[in-house]
Write a structure and sequence with these properties.
Length: 280
């Protein structure tokens, strides 16, 4: 296994259990400052412009993730506060679901990619997780197709059924914004720079996807794709500074609805035997 550890912006260290993997960095990383290499009995410094070691025929692809969005402005890559992230989530939620984005049922799925830790971040022990959506019925086939196209074996973690899966995928991605990673070098299979990777613990990713899947089950959007009035009202009371505001929003909304329905059901029973009792 190879990991690229950036201790500062341009100077880092590559740790490898196989010395020949030095070629990975030389062949696929564009460096502007010396980088330390250590692993087994190998220990050396890579200088800009160095050639791969003798005996290495072809550099293997290094799947490097970065914490900034390629080609985006400095402002776009600036860290967001909790309030800013939550405001973005609210904006996504408030937008109508467009007709072309509507689907009766789809899936949000998660799998692990190539077994390389994330680069340019502190969570080096976390192999990034891909979180995507599909309108197809066979999630396993979708993940298998991605693996074939991108030339790796994905490890499926979980999937949840949701209607309008594109909408809820957007909510999931916005919630995990601080964990998002971009491919720095491009996919070795399809040459694209995939953007749906997250350096996050599996349980955290699962909780977020499950929360928004639960929200979808509450049918928060009407037939026209607009957020229903009861949810708009709740949205107006959200404290965006609270990092747990969406758990309270979603599950609190369910509890409120459950209590209201239980109350109405109980009152109907009482009215049937006590006509003088009316609901206030």
């Amino acid at each position: 296994m190879v990991s690229v550890i950036h201790r500062h912006r341009n100077v880092g260290e590559i740790v490898t259990e196989q010395p020949e993997d030095i070629a990975i960095a030389l062949g696929h990383l564009s460096i502007s400052s010396p980088v330390s290499i250590r692993g087994g009995s190998a220990a050396r410094r890579i200088q800009p412009g160095d050639e791969p070691p003798v005996g290495v025929s072809e550099p293997r692809a290094l799947f490097v993730y970065q914490t900034i969005q390629p080609k985006a402005s400095k402002e776009a890559n600036a860290p967001l506060s909790t309030a800013q992230i939550n405001e973005n989530i609210a904006t996504i939620m408030n937008k109508n679901i467009t007709p072309h984005a509507r689907s009766p049922m789809g899936w949000i799925y998660a799998f692990r990619g190539r077994q390389f830790p994330a680069a340019e971040c502190n969570d080096l022990l976390l192999t990034p997780i891909k979180i995507g959506h599909t309108g197809k019925n066979d999630v396993a086939d979708r993940i298998h197709t991605i693996g074939q196209r991108c030339k790796f074996q994905p490890q499926k973690l979980f999937h949840y059924a949701v209607p309008d899966s594109l909408k809820y995928e957007s909510l999931v991605h916005a919630t995990l914004h601080q964990h998002r990673r971009w491919e720095a070098l491009g996919c070795v299979g399809c040459n694209k720079k995939h953007i749906e990777w997250f350096a996050v613990e599996e349980e955290r990713a699962r909780r977020v996807v499950r929360m928004w899947a639960f929200f979808a089950a509450l049918d928060p959007y009407d037939e026209e794709g607009a957020l229903r009035e009861e949810w708009r009202t709740r949205l107006g009371r959200v404290d965006y500074r609270d990092p747990w505001c969406w758990e309270s929003f979603v599950y609190g909304g369910f509890v409120d609805r459950f209590i209201d329905e239980a109350y109405r059901s109980r009152m109907k029973q009482r009215v049937s035997v006590m006509p003088g009792v009316v609901e206030g």
